[in-house]
Amino acid sequence: MELGLVGLANAGKTALFNLVTGSAAEVAPYPLTTREPLRAVAEVPDPRLDAIADAQDIPRRVPAQVQVVDIAGLGEGAGRGEGLGGAALGRLRQTDAVVHVVRAFANAEVPHPSERIDPAADAEAVDLELTVADREQSARRAERTAKAARAGEAAAKAELAALERLVAHLDEGRPARTLAADDAAVAAVAADMGLLTAKPVLYLANVDDPGDPPPALVEHAAAQGGEAMALAVGLELELAGMDPEEAAELAAEMELGSERGAPAVVAAGYRLLDLVTFFTGSGPPEARAWPIRRGLTADRAAGRIHSDMERGFIRAEVIGWRELVETGSFARARETAKVRIEGRDYVVQEGDVMQIRFNV
Description:
By secondary structure, this protein is α/β, with parallel strands linked by helices. It folds into two domains: 1-34 and 71-137 and 187-273, Rossmann fold (3-Layer(aba) Sandwich); 275-358, Roll (Ubiquitin-like (UB roll)). 44% of the residues lie in helices and 20% in strands. It contains 15 helices and twelve strands. The strands form three sheets. It has a six-stranded mixed beta sheet, with helices on both faces. β8 (275-280) and β9 (286-293) form a beta hairpin. α1 (13-21) runs parallel beside α9 (233-240), α2 runs parallel beside α14 and α4 (119-150) runs parallel beside α8 (215-223). The chain is flat, with a radius of gyration of 23 Å. The protein starts with a strand and ends with a strand. The model has no long low-confidence stretch (mean pLDDT 90).
């Protein structure tokens, strides 16, 4: 999973990047501190992984990982490739989902490009640039496809019809995702092009104090087919730099809740992409967590581990993580008939622990 951070200059994207990944990228109160895309990995905390490993005395634990990319702040004209927009949006197209960071904090020492704090207006401004970029890309593809359609190619005719619907939708200022949700042909072509407004999106309001996102931003997110959440990024960075026990006590005093900070952002990413986690770890040397799309079959999940496993898939031995922990080991679970034998068409479930049998 790769999350792309997008937003206006000085919205707090790089601060969020540092919070989620534990990086120390430069954060400064002037525009375009980030010029080249920043990329780092965030580990996904999951107490189930430790429980699986502890029950079986497995020393090495490998959590799931999330790739995070922080691109340059966008401005007017970015959708047409002006300034840093072309390179920034090109990199954003490679991501799986978008975290749209919107400024909702009122620090006078950090200038706003428009000299006002209006989260919904900021979100609309960036979304307009993304829509313009998608519209231009879709129109260019439609022009190329039209030539093949005129030559009588059936597939080209079907794609051209989908592209024409898509361009008309984008011309109305609406994102590709709201059309793709009910139009499989549009969804396919939008995914093939990596359209920015087709990607799942989370609007993250960077607020001064913990609480709910601004209502106008929530309304905008709903209209765009996305989600909204609020996070006091500056406060969370301060807590992340403290002693863990002291930070936990302060967070409890401030009633910040159980899901906050970097884990809350990662959890939102999982929801956006509809991911589930399965585990491997039937004994030493390691237990590992694997994020996959919901609905993936056992052979495809095996391919997530290694392509040889998918190609030579024979069967999967499966047990729920709780049952494995209660039993104490994969071997004892087999002896007590708690391990199921599943074929390649088995749909992997949240929390499954699997041992893949394959032959190549």
